[in-house]
Amino acid sequence: MTKVRRTQEQRRRDTQDAILDAVIELLLERGYAAMTAIDVAERAGVSRGAQAHYFRTKLDLAIASARRAMKVAIEAAESMAEAAKQSDDVIGGFIEQSRRFFLEPYYIAMIDILLVGRTDLALSKDYSKLIIETRTRLEEIWLSVFHHAGMSDKGAQMLLTMTHHMMRGMAMSTLWRSEPKEMEAVIEQWTQIAEDIMRKDLATRAANLQRKR
């Protein structure tokens, strides 16, 4: 069998991906303060020179890993939201995407960067901007889905905000303890509550429209 040789661009992307994957792993294991650029190069299996060619500093590594993680998350949200629009289970799609965003390892690693950024102005400047942009885009995506389903502006915003706050809290809790079964039970219960919120909002909006006729 003939082995297909990677192009230079593919090799470049593979190297960058290996480096950024190593950043996430080390952030989870040690935290931003204890992570070094040398550690990242060793974990990724590349030379320090190769790493520095793409990401010169520890700050560059952190921001690049966060930017890639948020880009992947937004793409997944767009795909899942489009599927939810065509489905009878809008809440199920929304909760599942929220779970994937907030409870996957990359988001847990991002929490550590966010905490460090409170006192590291260089890190905070770029990272805070990225977080705001990501949060805004996620809200746009799902508010569009809720509106498409017929929810009111107020009801859609409340449902989104409450769900995201709950998921963020669960993500934070994994930093010091992990109870998968307990978390699954909470998500299942919240899904039922969210479905009830949506049903009541749709019923109230339908009644208000009927009265105006």
Structure notes:
The chain is mostly helical. It has a domain at about 65-210. About 80% of the residues lie in helices and about 0% in strands. The protein contains 9 helices and no strands. It has helices spanning about 10-30, 35-45, 50-55, 60-85, 90-105, 105-115, 120-150, 155-175, 180-210. Helix 4 runs antiparallel to helix 5, helix 4 (about 60-85) packs parallel to helix 7 and helix 5 packs across helix 9. The longest helix has about 35 residues, at about 180-210. The chain is elongated and about 70 Å long. The termini are far apart. About 25% of the residues are buried. The mean pLDDT is about 90.
Key structural traits:
213 residues, elongated
State mean pLDDT (0 to 100 scale).
Answer: 89
Structure summary, number of beta strands: 0
Strand and helix order:
HHHHHHHHH
Gyration radius, rounded = 21 Å
Total helices: the number is 9
What can be said about this structure in brief?
This protein has helices spanning 8-30, 37-44, 48-54, 58-85, 90-103, 105-117, 121-148, 153-173, 180-212. By secondary structure, it is mainly α.
Could you outline the blueprint of secondary structure elements for this entry?
Blueprint: H1 8-30, H2 37-44, H3 48-54, H4 58-85, H5 90-103, H6 105-117, H7 121-148, H8 153-173, H9 180-212
Helix pairs in contact: 1-2, 1-4, 1-6, 4-5, 4-7, 5-8, 5-9, 6-7, 7-8, 8-9
